[in-house]
## 1
Amino acid sequence: MKILENKKALILGVANDKSIAYGIAKVFYENGAILGFNYLDERIEKRVRPIAQEFNSDLVVKCDVSKDEEIKSLFEAVKEKWGSVDIIVHSIAFANKEYLKDYYYTVDRQSFLQAMDISVYSFTAIAREFLPILNEGASLLTLSYYGAEKVVYNYNVMGVAKAALEASVKYLARDLGEKGIRVNCISAGPIKTLAAMGISDFNEIQKISAERAPLKRNVTIEEVGKAALFLCSDLSSGITGEILHVDAGYNIIG
Ligand SMILES: COc1ccc(Cn2cnc3cc4c(cc32)CCCC4)cc1C
């Protein structure tokens, strides 16, 4: 019996095969999970559909998590196709990249609210909307970054958003615990994904991270996937509200 045999896992935020969500989907599929995907727009759909095929998935739904009606239509599609769901992975964030450099305080109200809406509120909205079809023992998982806990130059408004996301993981864990639903978070090291493209000197961020981290390297999307397998399976049945660092140990260094 594979760890996730017959478990239905909805993976939100695959953009291409470099995505963290792709690494999670691949490990889940290799461990017997049945997968479903969303895509943001037609451009992303072109990359997600072949990935869904690679994982024998026939559940691929458009969902822009900044729109309540698209979260509702995602819910209806999943309910119609699967009836219920065991795992939801939320690997979605957004900030106007022009604010991921220089001074944090330059961020305007609209960009601040947009970063919070997409990167933070969407996880709470998904949890609430899917509650009626979450199975007993279901797991919710989202992704964060060290810039939520300590000031990491350039991370700026994303750091404020991820701090809010990490707090929301704990409040959701409190709310959903009585229903046997666990809510956890992986704080991943810097990984060169589509989101990281165009970030000023991102290569420098990865280089410094690898130099300082105890393992003297960066982590891969597969390593995040393996930790996600643990947090979304019965292996972590006693864990909820947890922020698990998958960062080669970077966070322990003063
Ligand atoms: C230290 O600075 C950084 C460290 C890691 C990163 C990579 N990264 C982590 N979470 C992110 C969320 C977003 C972007 C990049 C992200 C891009 C826009 C969409 C949301 C970015 C910076 C800036």
## 2
Amino acid sequence: MRKLISPSQAQEAIFQMLARSPSIDCPIDQCAGRILREHVRADRPFPPFNRSMMDGYAIRAAEIDVSGTFKIIAQAPAGAPELTLGNEPSVCAEIMTGAVVPSDADCVVPYEVTRQIDETHMQVIHPKDHAAGDFIHAYASDRPTGEVLLAPGIRIGSREIAVAASCGCKTLLVSAKPSIAVVSTGDELVDITATPAAHQIRRSNDLMIDAALKRRDLPAAQLAHLPDEPNACQAQLQALIAQHDLIILSGGISMGKKDYIPAALDALGLHCQFHGVAQKPGKPLGFWSHPECAVFTLPGNPLSTLTCWHQYVLPALDHFMGHDSPPIPPQLSLEAPVKARDDITIFLPVSRKANNIASAQPANNSGDLVRILQSDGYIELPPTQEKGYPAGKSFDFHLWY
Ligand SMILES: Nc1nc2c(c(=O)[nH]1)N[C@H]1C(S)=C(S)[C@@H](COP(=O)(O)OP(=O)(O)OC[C@H]3O[C@@H](n4cnc5c(N)ncnc54)[C@H](O)[C@@H]3O)O[C@H]1N2
Ligand code: MOO
């Protein structure tokens, strides 16, 4: 490990070195969850005509007299071109929701507030209750033609799909998904299909990372396992670096005699941006870069891997994809006093209770992956000379994926 840097310096270093994903055209029905890389402008006004908001009658408001009676002279269904009421006074058109309001009408009166007199006449029950503009979604009142409706960098959800579809976008320019390899290391680890011997454990970090990536719609292109043997480890890493944009590796990066990863990455010509962060868990976190590939080395203890994935890899993926305005983390306030450190940041697992209260759920240590089940996420406790924080103090909360 090198000189420890702070969590914010680590994040800054990652953002500075990480390239941007290229943009690709994507069919609109496959864009949900992706990051937009173009401006989408209104190709016509929103709405493109005076749209009736109710089923009822289109009238001229100034013609409502004490009798409230109108002659029905036309039908204006949705999907029919604009019509006019003409010169005859006190006439109306029967109109449907979504239909174009006749050019010389200015008010829509819903059926519920009228009474049908006969086949061709209706009466407005309370004549004084209606005015010009009622129940008309006016032409261009939402947005004029040419206005930017969607800007680059946003995550596309159902609302954005609806707006883009309304503008006639069959495809959208979005960030290409990176090819990601998730890599585990360590001779003590066996595949879940194998029965572990007494000295072995089943591999779980790789599946944990892949599951979190899948929730972000970025499944790993490859899961690989490296042996604790320097030459094989370096050769396999070289092949992985050649094939993928990002590598998320867990384990083999602290100070053990068989922690070969840092030396292998150095030997392969990658540049170590940092190795060692003043935080717990996750102190041996590292980041190596190369023009075509970036490697996150997450400490192998499961809670360290999980926390570092959330704190560093997830924002880095957003940055890589061009999504630069991730949501501001909610603040939770401590239910009871907690211990902190004066030299390092603590990421403390907590459960989220009503009224945004954080209840500490510390693990036994960062190898305890079962206790994490009782937490909903973690809060970030910066270093403090007091070595603790009182009940009621608020901190950024990050939900587990
Ligand atoms: N002398 C020092 N020793 C250690 C330091 C240190 O600063 N000085 N840091 C400690 C910290 S903090 C952590 S965290 C760990 C991280 O070590 P590594 O990244 O080298 O991880 P390993 O030693 O390979 O594994 C640690 C632990 O996690 C288990 N593990 C690893 N990968 C997986 C996986 N894919 N699935 C499930 N479990 C996994 C592994 O079996 C070990 O038990 O180093 C401390 N040591
Ligand atoms: O990074 Mo370690 O998580 O303190 O065991």
